């Protein structure tokens, strides 16, 4: 579980007129946590996120299209309010289907590999097999998942300004933009480099960074603790849900069903006690109301909490993937550097042999065996060695350029990852505040309603007179 000092949410503030961009009151009430914009903050560090404005999005109104055909699908109304200069209107809107969200997410991952792109809900659900994917309950759950995905994208200072997000939110010819984006991606296509030509014996999936950066080690440790806390919380609330309202009275752990059974028993007792039948019926009705209140709280508070916990865990996995990719960039640099050292040593060895010095002496068993094999093959003459040196010189030049590029890429990716961690930390804290706030509001509403129900029955019970 997270320690008391791991995640402090006091720093997560709502928009205020002093710090937020100017927009109307309707925007302000929907801004929520996570839309803080640091366009005028002069104390920003080199790795702090920088916003150019706000983007507030919503996904609503799921509609079944082509309802009577085999090509039926669900479309969602996507709306936004923004002051970003890349948008042509401050209130873009469009209807998009789930596949459009998938395209957006896949290409954001490809176009912005250093960004933490939020995940989408899994498409492979039981509802697709059973044919219930058009049920109102499923469409509403998916709408909420897509709403949360788009909110996370709009809270990201880089993703919110991308041309693909702009087209997704306001284009009336989205399919044209999709084809254009595939044909002409915003960045250069990755070309096979020297790192791709190194054998699998040199680069393997189990290699580890030899000089780990403590900053990223601390980040991974923080991610581990955060995910552990989410996993434990999810497990505990699943247990709470199953014991309070799992919908299976035969399990013996359904508190909602127990209150319902108790109400039936009290009502039956009322028929036997003619003098207090009315009071017992009122008490039975209160038990039924409380049972319904428990079920309502499960549906409106506990279930959304469980969905949000699982979604936040998937979001953290996406953040972990970026940290892993950063390690891979550093590993590429380290492996290329080692490869360059080996090729340089081989070139120096051949130069020593040509100049009359011992070729493999002191260079280890491998160099000695290589000399013996070359001697057997008749390739140990000076002419062959000179040709090998020429080829090695070319390879060394290529490797030097590749090492320089890999080093610059690794450093740039590390800097971008530091910014991404600041963005993710801010988004995580905002979502935690929102999630826990909704939980607290739901519990307050439940206990207020429960108190009203029980206080209403007290005067009725007090009217019962017992003759001694």
TrEMBL record:
Subcellular location: Cytoplasm; Endosome membrane
Keyword field contains Membrane: yes
Annotated signal peptide: none
Major localization listed first in the record, in broad terms: cytoplasm
GO cellular component, one term: phagophore assembly site
Pfam family, one: PX
Membrane topology: Peripheral membrane protein
Keywords linked to the UniProt accession: Autophagy, Cytoplasm, Endosome, Lipid-binding, Membrane, Transport
InterPro entries in the record: AH/BAR_dom_sf, PX_dom, PX_dom_sf
Domain PX, residue spans: 54-176
Domain of life per record: Eukaryota
Stretches of the chain forming a coiled coil according to its record: none
UniProt GO BP: autophagy of mitochondrion; endocytic recycling; piecemeal microautophagy of the nucleus; protein transport; reticulophagy
CDD domains linked: PX_Atg24p (cd06863)
GO MF annotations, alphabetized: phosphatidylinositol binding
Annotated segments matching region Disordered: 20-51
Protein family according to the UniProt entry: Belongs to the sorting nexin family.
Name of this chain's protein: Sorting nexin-4
Organism: Lyophyllum shimeji (Hon-shimeji)
Designated gene of the protein: SNX4
């Amino acid at each position: 579980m997270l320690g008391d000092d791991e995640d402090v949410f006091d720093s997560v503030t709502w928009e205020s007129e002093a710090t937020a961009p100017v927009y109307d009151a309707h925007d302000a009430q929907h801004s929520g946590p996570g839309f803080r914009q640091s366009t005028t903050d002069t104390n920003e560090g080199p790795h702090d996120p920088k916003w150019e404005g706000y983007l507030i999005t919503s996904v609503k109104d799921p509609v079944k299209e082509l309802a009577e055909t085999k090509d039926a699908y669900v479309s969602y109304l996507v709306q936004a309010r923004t002051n970003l200069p890349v948008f042509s209107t401050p209130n873009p809107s469009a209807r998009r289907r789930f596949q459009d969200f998938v395209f957006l997410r896949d290409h954001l991952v490809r176009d912005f590999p250093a960004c933490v792109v939020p995940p989408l809900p899994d498409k492979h659900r039981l509802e697709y097999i059973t044919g219930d994917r058009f049920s109102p309950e499923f469409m509403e759950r998916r709408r909420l998942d897509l709403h949360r995905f788009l909110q996370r994208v709009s809270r990201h200072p880089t993703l919110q300004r991308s041309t693909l997000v702009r087209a997704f939110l306001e284009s009336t010819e989205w399919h044209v933009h999709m084809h254009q984006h595939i044909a002409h991606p915003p960045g250069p296509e990755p070309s096979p480099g020297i790192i791709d030509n190194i054998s699998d014996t040199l680069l393997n999936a189990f290699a580890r960074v030899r000089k780990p950066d403590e900053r990223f080690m601390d980040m991974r440790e923080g991610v581990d603790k955060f995910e552990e806390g989410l996993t434990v919380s999810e497990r505990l609330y699943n247990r709470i849900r199953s014991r309070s309202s799992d919908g299976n009275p035969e399990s013996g752990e359904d508190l909602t069903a127990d209150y319902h059974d108790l109400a039936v028993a009290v009502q039956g007792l009322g028929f036997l006690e003619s003098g207090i039948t009315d009071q017992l019926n009122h008490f039975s009705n209160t038990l039924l109301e409380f049972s319904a209140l428990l079920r309502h709280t499960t549906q409106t508070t506990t279930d959304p909490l469980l969905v949000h916990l699982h979604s936040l865990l998937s979001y953290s996995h996406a953040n972990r993937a970026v940290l892993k990719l950063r390690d891979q960039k550093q590993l590429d640099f380290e492996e290329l550097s080692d490869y360059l050292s080996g090729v340089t040593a081989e070139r120096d060895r051949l130069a020593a042999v040509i100049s009359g010095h011992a070729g493999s002496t002191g260079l280890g068993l491998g160099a000695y065996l290589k000399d013996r094999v070359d001697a057997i093959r008749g390739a140990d003459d000076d002419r062959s060695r000179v040709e090998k040196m020429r080829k090695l010189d070319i390879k060394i030049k290529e490797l030097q350029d590749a090492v320089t590029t890999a080093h610059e890429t690794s450093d740039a990716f590390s800097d971008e990852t530091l910014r991404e961690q600041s963005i993710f930390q801010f988004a995580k804290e905002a979502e935690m505040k929102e999630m826990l706030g909704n939980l607290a509001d739901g519990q307050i509403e439940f206990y207020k309603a429960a108190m009203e129900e029980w206080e209403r029955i007290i005067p009725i019970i007090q009217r019962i007179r017992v003759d001694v």
